[in-house]
Amino acid sequence: MNSEVGMNKKFDLNDKVIVVTGGTGILGSLYCRRLVEAGAKVAIADLDKEKCIALAKEISTGHDEALAFAVNLADEASVKIWAGQILETYGRVDVLINNAAAKSANFFAPLERFPLEDWNQVMAVNVTAMFLTTRELGPSMAERGQGSIINISSIYGVVGPDQRIYEGSWYEDLGGSINTPLIYSVSKGAVVAMTKYLATYWGPKGVRANTLTPGGISSGQNGLFQEKYSARVPLGRMAQAEEMVGALIFLASDASSYVNGQNIIVDGGLTAW
């Protein structure tokens, strides 16, 4: 019984200060909600200040378990001010979850006609912003001798997309026909590389860095896409967003105290083929 209590304690997030970028998105808002439920103090970071405030009010129970910290992650000055506000408010950061990702106006344009402007815009949020948030908040973790950095990648940062599953694919919320553009794969692959670097750079200081890589998540794609994608997965289906939460809490908690530099792939076995 005592050992069971001890193990459960390792997954306890009580009073951990956790920063979530992209905190009002589909996955980000779910992460924030579940982290608060697990006892964490959550700093919700996103571009839209009002959305951050609304989500913080919604998931807090009256004790400021979540607070809003609006930021333009593509702007260095904004990130510096934002990081200072977080450290001033909490005095520390225990976990940094780099979850933010961007879709540009021409995100689904074919490779042959993909605009450089869109490429730079996506890289600014998916990669450069991750560098900036880590640069600004990571040193305080290293100074304290502990911390966890969790970088969110994608299955297509690990393997190439099967272009065949996009024939006839449709996503109404994203404006129609969809694909996985080169910029997405490149930026998400960079996330994995960045994690490995950080793991060896700050590991000696007690700061762990790991990647969480979700497989395809069911979130409004049409039936044909879901059928084709599911056929590629040994479990025979797409993921539900909730199925990413367990791995996230594990990486944020002391249960993963010796896990460093790893890419935790939650894909139903797709990469096992």
Quick overview:
The protein has 8 helices and 9 strands.
Number of helices in the DSSP assignment: 8
Mean pLDDT: 95
Fraction of helical residues? 40-55%
H and E string: HEHEHEHEHEEEHEHHE
By CATH, the topology is: Rossmann fold
Q: Could you give the order of strands across the largest sheet?
A: 3-2-1-4-5-8-9
CATH architecture: 3-Layer(aba) Sandwich
Cα distance spanning the termini: 40 Å
Please state the overall shape, judged from the principal axes of the Cα atoms: globular
Assign the structural class, choosing from mainly alpha, mainly beta, alpha/beta, alpha+beta, or little secondary structure: alpha/beta
Largest sheet: 7 strands, parallel
State the total count of DSSP E strands: 9
Overall radius of gyration: 18 Å
CATH superfamily: NAD(P)-binding Rossmann-like Domain
Domain tally = 1
Stretches where pLDDT is under 50 for at least 5 consecutive residues are: none
Q: What would your notes on this structure say?
A:
The chain has eight helices and nine strands. It is of the alpha/beta class and 273 residues long. The chain has a single domain, classed as NAD(P)-binding Rossmann-like Domain (Rossmann fold, 3-Layer(aba) Sandwich), CATH 3.40.50. The strands form two sheets. A seven-stranded parallel β-sheet has the order 3-2-1-4-5-8-9, with helices on both faces. Helix 4 packs parallel to helix 5 and helix 5 packs parallel to helix 6. The longest helix has 29 residues. The radius of gyration is 18 Å and the shape is globular. The mean pLDDT is 95.
Give the tags.
7-stranded parallel beta sheet; globular; Rossmann fold; about 270 residues; alpha/beta; two-stranded antiparallel ribbon
